[in-house]
Hints:
homodimer; 9-stranded mixed sheet
Amino acid sequence: MKSVSSAKSFGGTQAVYSHASTSCNCEMKFAVFTPPEDLHGTGPYPALFWLSGLTCTEENFITKAGAHRVAAELGLVIVAPDTSPRGEDIPEDPEGAYDFGLGAGFYLDASEHPWATNYNMYSYVTRELPALLEKELPIDMSCIGIAGHSMGGHGALTIHLKNPGLFKTCSAFSPIVAPSEVPWGRKAFTNYLGPDEAAWAQYDATKLVTGSKSDADILIDQGTADQFLTEQLRPELFAEACRLSGQSLTLRMQDGYDHSYYFIATFIEDHLRWHHERLSRE
Amino acid sequence: MKSVSSAKSFGGTQAVYSHASTSCNCEMKFAVFTPPEDLHGTGPYPALFWLSGLTCTEENFITKAGAHRVAAELGLVIVAPDTSPRGEDIPEDPEGAYDFGLGAGFYLDASEHPWATNYNMYSYVTRELPALLEKELPIDMSCIGIAGHSMGGHGALTIHLKNPGLFKTCSAFSPIVAPSEVPWGRKAFTNYLGPDEAAWAQYDATKLVTGSKSDADILIDQGTADQFLTEQLRPELFAEACRLSGQSLTLRMQDGYDHSYYFIATFIEDHLRWHHERLSRE
């Protein structure tokens, strides 16, 4: 694990590290905010994994979400991985589209050629990165939550539902909740997982929640002015599946907010407090 | 004035506009945050002009500083212009350097060819933009402050000192305070203003404060781990000039902070409250 950068922020430290990933077969970067030691000691601290959306890297959340102030106050680590494998040898969308390939790993393990060699963000986020962090950083691995935005909201929901014992709390902004039903998800899953839709269900939050609801209360914030709301996001599909399965869900439709980081910045404090309060009960 | 974008943020609105600038002879963009009407009515509101640093556009501050939360609470408009003229016909640094030309207007009116046609950010910020805003937006032009970062801190200090009746309050993060003495400033001034250093004094805060101190108390935050501190910034030169001239200055050396937006985000709340409190007394 190599240090890429480090800066003081709200008394804590915002660092970026890189390491050779065995899941993704390339060098991967991730960002970590650690809270001020003079307020919270040297840890181990509870942590929130943040999964970003299409086109993002490990940088977007840490520079745009305004999360440091409250994370510093609460004593919460924030871990923000990249959204896909990266590098010259990594296959990408043949037309350079923003919604597939680089910046669009969809937090799954690909089964299809040529993607399966590198596009294994599910294993990366759920196994490789937690193991690395446990070894290298002052994180209490029994107190981790997960959250994300858009494609990263899809990642947070599916990863929580499949690993409720590891990622104990879950929230999302503007998530893709039913990738099997929407253009972004269908394109990505067809390429990464092949045309057999039966293989898609393991990475579809709306399908997963039917069979694997968690004991956690899931929080979703969704802006009503989001340009992707009706075609790509469709939170009502997840809400209905939660209702049928008995999954506890708090879905807040936020009037007039769009898909941008301004929306995330406005409500990130609520999410950080939501996770911290629930993780503190563990 | 054309709308480029608009997004809800903390109950207010973050908009970007463009317009044909007569000062810069090109289309210019600027960003405006207006606070929530349900909390603060429809204005006119007090406003803070924010001037960004080298390489920045009107976007950096509004996406990275985390200023909306407190501006929304206080009922403060934030106006963030671009840092230079832009466009295909605008002359730029022949080697594409980051510290001169595009993204590096230094908030002055150039006198030298080929810069004088477009590089007139001083007139733009002090005359053209205020006149446009007064006509188009709910801003109380008798309650404006100015702040900035690095090159924009230089802009804020010089513009305040030359226009204390228009920009009544002033603060800066990591400002260039003595451009005539440091490499960034000497390069820019030699090109924009010519080799005669006598012409530089009108845009040098340390020289200006000797002759034109303001009644305002100026706030400067400077990180001690700033990589540009000793070569480019040198706040001690301004502090000494303020001491000699009787200019009130609060210079805070912030332990361990660097030159980045993490530093700005950490202390922007202090600056917004500083300006708002003083503007509210007017």
